[in-house]
Structures are given as C-alpha cells and as structure tokens.
C-alpha cells in the first residue's frame, strides 16, 4: 500500500510540470501510418493575429485521446463512416438515385472536404459541405433533405471528410468568398454574451492555457466532424460554434445560419495548410 | 432489433505458435439502459447487448456478461494465445434475441 502511494506520488511529481506547463505538445500524428500536418506556418491572411504557427487541436488533447485517433479501428467516429457508406449506396427519393449513382464510390470525394465551405457560382451562394449534401439530395435525388445537425448528415460529412484525410485544407477567401471571410472575421472578434468573450479571447490570445479544466486549443476545425468523448458521438462545426457561444451565456446563432456559414469560412481559412483529420477524436 | 448494429473486429492475419496476440472488437449499438425517459415521461425500454463471447476453434477464449451501465458501442480489447492456425469466432447477444456474429481466420 505504502509502495503504491509512493509510486503514485512520484508519478505525480513527474507529470505535474507537464500538466501545468500548458501549450501544445510535440507529438506526431500518424493515422494508420499516414503522417498528418498538424503544425505549419500560418496562412498569410493571419499576419495581423500574431499567430505564426497554426496547430491542430489534436496537440492540446491528452495522450489517451490522441492515441484513439491514431488508429482507424480505435476511432469511434469511424462507426459513423461505416453507416454513411451504407447510406451512400442507398437509393432514395423520386429520382431513384443514390449518391453512388452519380459519384460512384466515396473515394471520388477525395479533396472535397479540404476546400469547403466553397462558393457555388451557379447558385450564387456560399455552401458548406452540409448544404451541398442537402442540395444533392433535394435537386438530384428528389429526396428529403437531412436535418443540418442530425446524425445522418454528420455521418455523411464524416464519410466525405475521411476521403480527404491528410490533404491540406485550402479554403478560398478571395473573389466572392471575400465578403463571407470579412463577415466571419467580424463575428470571430465580436464579444458575445454575459461573459463578453469573443472567439479570439480564448483561441487566439489564450490557446495553450487552461480555462478551468479545459485546455484551450487554437479552435481549428480541420478535424471536423469530431468524435467528442463527452457526447459519445460526432459533432459538426456549427454544433461546436453554438456550444462555444452558448458558453459565453449568449443567445447563439442557429446551426446552418448565414452567420455560422460566414464564421465557418473564416475559421476554416485560419487552418489553411493543416491536414484534414475528420473524423478526429477530442475530449 | 436495434438499428445500425455492425460488428467490427481486428485480429492480426498471422502469428507464431504460442504467441499472444491482441484482439480488438467493437460493435455499434445504442445500449439503451432502460433508466431513461422520453420526452413524454415514458420509460424507454432497455435494449443492450448482454453477452459477448469469443471462441477459437470451438474453445472458449472469453465470455462476458454485460450490464446496463455500459456505454454505447461496446469495445473490448483482450489478448489470446494462438496455439495453432484456426478461426476466431465472435458472438454478441442482444436483449431482443438477435445474435450478431463475426469470424476472423489466423494462420500460424
């Protein structure tokens, strides 16, 4: 008993400095042997933010959580990918088509996640991946759209994201996207709620520090949809935005709202250069 | 039958005789505990996987009884010694009587 207590103390002494030092770790993320870019130079448009290295949220999580993402089998988010693969091949709607009827295998979606949200010139609107999936469902398949944040939609996003795993995020912010970028940036720096916190207060000024027990990351969204252990399920970017704003004790924007689409454009562009990791695993 | 149930198993393809190997299994299942209530206050009936077994060439390796407090998508990782080439057979038993099976062959 005494020996146990001593070892426990010794372990605490060793781990304590690391625990309280904060900051990102220097581990390397490989998924099934494929190396991911989790730290890289910040894109040019972030020059004024004072951040010179952008880092995946993976670096801010504990070793156990990190390990879960390093093996596809251990990653619980892959269950959703399996389920979405079935949905991919399921014929639905009045046109009697499945995703596979037009796109063949899900592999054809390689590179898609990396460039979304993306301007759709034909429709003249900025589309998130979820909006594009629903557009396919309603226009091409004649099927009911998925609800924006429901499990089927999140799973389909996960399936499409995994096809781009390892590819660098490359969201356009010029041309018609510039307007959304500016609007998103404004939201990012606006203080919301009773606590008067903006995204930047935590994720730009204080990443690496603790907010009570939570280790603040840079708020990158390259790993979305994310399997959150506390939800035991996949979480979309907009869910996370809403959760963050709610935690400032503010009235939040709705999932799928124009405000969140703009914010997603801006936040995604802050991760230009990082690997697509979705579905990632977080606390 | 609970929807979306899909067993997944990871076993190395080969091992040397007498070697201990790590086996990982995961089954997607909601594992409804029976303690929760729906929006109208009615209890949601219990629906869990209550037993998991693994056999190697007819010999039992592990036999687990599961209770309602186990989280969704139960995951098991265990070690087994492989004396000879053969097949691991995995079986999950659902409350509703459904039985899910998977098998993986291993060479020595």
TrEMBL record, chain A:
Residues 1-21 form the signal peptide. It catalyses: S-sulfanyl-L-cysteinyl-[SoxY protein] + thiosulfate + 2 Fe(III)-[cytochrome c] = S-(2-sulfodisulfanyl)-L-cysteinyl-[SoxY protein] + 2 Fe(II)-[cytochrome c] + 2 H(+); L-cysteinyl-[SoxY protein] + thiosulfate + 2 Fe(III)-[cytochrome c] = S-sulfosulfanyl-L-cysteinyl-[SoxY protein] + 2 Fe(II)-[cytochrome c] + 2 H(+). It is found in: Periplasm. Its main location: periplasm. Keywords: Electron transport, Heme, Iron, Metal-binding, Periplasm, Signal, Transferase, Transport. Residues 83-169 form the Cytochrome c domain. Its EC number is 2.8.5.2. It is an enzyme of class 2 (transferase). Heterodimer of SoxA and SoxX. Belongs to the SoxA family. This is SoxAX cytochrome complex subunit A. The gene is soxA.
From TrEMBL, chain B:
Residues 12-102 form the Sulphur oxidation protein SoxZ domain. NCBIfam families: SoxZ_true. This is Thiosulfate oxidation carrier complex protein SoxZ. The gene is soxZ.
């Amino acid at each position: 008993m005494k020996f146990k207590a001593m070892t426990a103390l010794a372990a605490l002494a060793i781990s304590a400095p690391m625990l309280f030092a904060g900051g990102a770790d220097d581990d390397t993320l490989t998924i099934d042997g494929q190396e991911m870019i989790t730290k890289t130079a910040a894109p040019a448009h972030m020059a004024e933010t004072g951040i010179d290295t952008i880092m995946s949220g993976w670096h801010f999580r504990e070793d156990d959580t990190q390990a879960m993402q390093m093996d596809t089998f251990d990653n619980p988010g892959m269950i959703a990918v399996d389920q979405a693969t079935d949905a991919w091949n399921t014929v639905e709607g009045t046109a009697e088509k499945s995703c596979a009827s037009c796109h063949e295998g899900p592999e054809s979606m390689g590179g898609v996640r990396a460039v979304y949200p993306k301007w759709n010139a034909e429709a003249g609107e900025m589309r998130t991946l979820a909006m594009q999936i629903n557009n396919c469902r309603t226009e091409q398949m004649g099927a009911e759209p998925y609800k924006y944040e429901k499990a089927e939609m999140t799973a389909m996003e996960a399936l499409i994201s995994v096809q781009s795993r390892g590819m660098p995020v490359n969201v356009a912010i010029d041309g018609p996207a510039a307007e959304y970028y500016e609007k998103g940036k404004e939201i990012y720096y606006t203080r919301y709620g009773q606590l008067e916190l903006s995204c930047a207060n935590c994720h730009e000024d204080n990443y690496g520090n603790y907010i009570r027990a939570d280790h603040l990351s840079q708020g990158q969204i390259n790993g979305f949809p994310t399997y959150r252990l506390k939800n035991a399920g996949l979480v979309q970017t907009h869910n996370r935005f809403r959760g963050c704003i709610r935690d400032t004790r503010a009235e939040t924007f709705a999932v799928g709202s124009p405000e969140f689409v703009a914010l997603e454009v801006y936040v995604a562009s802050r991760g230009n250069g990082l690997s697509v990791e979705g579905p990632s695993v977080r606390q | 039958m609970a929807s979306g149930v899909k067993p997944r198993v990871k076993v190395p393809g080969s091992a040397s005789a007498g070697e201990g190997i790590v086996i990982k299994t995961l089954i997607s299942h909601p594992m409804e505990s029976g303690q929760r209530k729906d929006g109208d206050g009615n209890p949601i009936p219990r629906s869990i996987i209550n037993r998991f077994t693994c056999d190697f060439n007819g010999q039992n390796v592990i036999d687990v009884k599961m209770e309602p407090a186990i989280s969704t998508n139960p995951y098991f990782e265990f070690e087994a010694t492989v004396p000879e080439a053969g097949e691991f057979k995995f079986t999950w038993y659902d409350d509703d009587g459904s039985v899910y099976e998977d098998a993986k062959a291993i060479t020595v």
